[in-house]
Design a protein that fits this description.
Length: 391
C-alpha cells in the first residue's frame, strides 16, 4: 500500500485525542505522588494513593468494553475524559490527602474508560492490513506522552506549584475533549453503534481459543514490562548507581520501546504477528537472564535497551491480534478484558515482586521471570494457525 494511503487509513484524530488524554493521566499520576510527599504522607498512604488509580479499572474494564460495544466509543470516551478533567480539578483546588484519594480514583477510572473506548474505535475503524500501523503509531504516542506528562508537570511544579500542575493537566484533558466533540456532534459513535452486543459471559469470551492465546501472551509481556520497571531500579541501586544514572537506565528502556515501535510496520511486513511475539518473549527472557549479571553501566544500558525493544512491540501486536481474533460485536469487551489484566498487573505485581525479592533476592526473581517468559515464547511459536483477516 502506498505511504499516503497507509497514513489516510490511520484514524489520527482519535490517536491524538487519546495521547493527549494520556499526557494528562501521566502528569496527574506524577503530581499526585509529589503532592502527597509534600503533605508528608507515609509510604503506605502514597502506596494506597497510587493503587487507587487502577483498582476500579481492574474490576470494571470489561464493563467499560461492553459499554463501548453497545453505545459506540464517543459517549463512554466523553464521560471518561470528563472524569479525568474533574479529578485534575479536585486535585488542583483542594490538594488535601482525602481530596487526592478521590482525584486518584477519578483520574485512573476516567482515563481507562476513554482508553478502552477509543482504542476499540481505532481497531474497528482501521482496515485489517493497517492494524499494526495504527497501533504502532498509537504506541509511539504513548511512549512520548508517558515522558511528556511528568516532564511538563515537573516544570510547572518547580515554578508554579502542585495546584498549577493539576490545572495544567486539566487543560490537556480539555483539549482531548475538544478533539472528541465533532464525533459527538456528528453522532459518529463508532462502527458498531446500534448493533446488539453478542450474548455471553467473560468466561465464554475466554473460551475462544485464538483470543485466549492473545490474552495469555499479552499478559506475559505486561508482566515483563512491569517487572523490569520495578526490579531494574533496585538492581541499579544495589550496584551503586546514582539516581541520575538509574534514571538514565530507565531512559534506555524507554528508548528501546520507542525504537521498536517506529520500526514495527517494517518488521511486520516480513514476519507474522505470532512470530514477532514469540521472538519478543525469547529476547525478554534472555535479557532477564543477563541483566542481574551485568555489573557495569554500559552492559546494563545495553540490556535495558534490548529489553525495551522486546516488550515495546507487545502492545501493538497484541492489540492487532485482539481485533482480528475477538468475536464479532465483542471487540470492546475483549479490549476491556485485556485492560483488566494490565490493571491487575500494575496493581498487584509490584507487591508480589517485592515480596519475592525480599525472600529470594532480586536476581532470583529475574531468573524466575526469564523461565516464564521463555515458556511463553515457546507457546507463541506454536501458534501457527493463520489469523482471520477482516476487511
Amino acid at each position: 500500500m502506498p505511504f499516503r494511503e497507509a497514513v489516510r487509513a490511520i484514524p489520527l484524530r482519535l490517536i491524538c485525542l487519546l495521547v493527549l488524554g494520556h499526557v494528562a493521566f501521566a502528569g496527574n499520576r506524577f503530581t499526585l505522588t509529589l503532592q502527597a510527599v509534600a503533605l508528608h504522607a507515609s509510604p503506605l498512604s502514597i502506596g494506597i494513593l497510587m493503587s487507587l488509580l487502577m483498582v476500579v479499572p481492574m474490576v470494571l474494564s470489561v464493563h467499560m468494553g461492553r459499554w463501548a460495544d453497545r453505545l459506540g466509543f464517543a459517549r463512554p470516551a466523553a464521560c471518561g475524559l470528563a472524569a479525568l478533567a474533574l479529578g485534575s480539578l479536585i486535585g488542583g483546588l483542594l490538594g488535601s490527602m482525602p481530596a487526592l484519594y478521590v482525584a486518584s480514583v477519578l483520574i485512573g477510572t476516567g482515563y481507562t474508560m476513554a482508553h478502552v473506548a477509543v482504542q476499540n474505535a481505532v481497531g474497528q475503524l482501521t482496515p485489517a492490513r493497517q492494524l499494526t500501523h495504527s497501533f504502532s503509531v498509537l504506541a509511539m504516542g504513548f511512549s512520548l506522552s508517558g515522558m511528556t506528562g511528568p516532564l511538563v508537570a515537573g516544570v510547572v511544579i518547580d515554578h508554579l506549584g502542585h495546584a498549577a500542575a493539576f490545572l495544567g493537566m486539566l487543560l490537556f484533558a480539555a483539549v482531548s475533549l475538544a478533539l472528541l466533540a465533532p464525533f459527538m456532534q456528528a453522532g459518529a459513535a463508532g462502527p458498531d453503534e446500534g448493533r446488539q452486543q453478542a450474548p455471553g459471559s467473560v468466561m465464554g469470551l475466554l473460551r475462544h481459543p485464538p483470543l485466549r492465546a492473545v490474552l495469555i501472551v499479552s499478559g506475559l509481556l505486561t508482566m515483563a514490562w512491569d517487572m523490569f520497571q520495578f526490579l531494574a531500579p533496585l538492581h541499579g541501586a544495589r550496584t551503586g548507581l546514582s539516581a541520575t544514572l538509574t534514571g538514565t537506565l530507565m531512559g534506555a528502556f524507554g528508548a528501546g520501546t520507542f525504537a521498536i515501535r517506529l520500526l514495527l510496520p517494517l518488521i511486520h511486513a516480513r514476519m507474522s504477528e505470532w512470530r514477532i511475539l514469540s521472538w519478543a518473549l525469547f529476547v525478554a527472557a534472555l535479557c532477564y537472564t543477563v541483566f542481574p549479571l551485568a555489573g557495569t553501566l554500559p552492559l546494563m544500558l545495553a540490556a535495558a535497551f534490548a529489553m525495551g525493544l522486546s516488550v515495546g512491540c507487545g502492545t501493538p501486536m497484541a492489540m492487532s491480534l485482539l481485533h482480528l481474533t475477538a468475536p464479532p460485536a465483542r471487540a470492546g469487551e475483549a479490549v476491556g478484558v485485556r485492560t483488566s489484566i494490565v490493571s491487575a498487573s500494575q496493581t498487584l505485581f509490584p507487591l508480589v515482586f517485592g515480596a519475592l525479592g525480599s525472600a529470594m533476592g532480586v536476581a532470583s526473581v529475574f531468573w524466575a521471570g526469564a523461565t516464564v517468559l521463555a515458556s511463553g515464547g515457546a507457546f507463541a511459536r506454536r501458534r501457527t494457525e493463520p489469523v482471520a483477516r477482516r476487511p
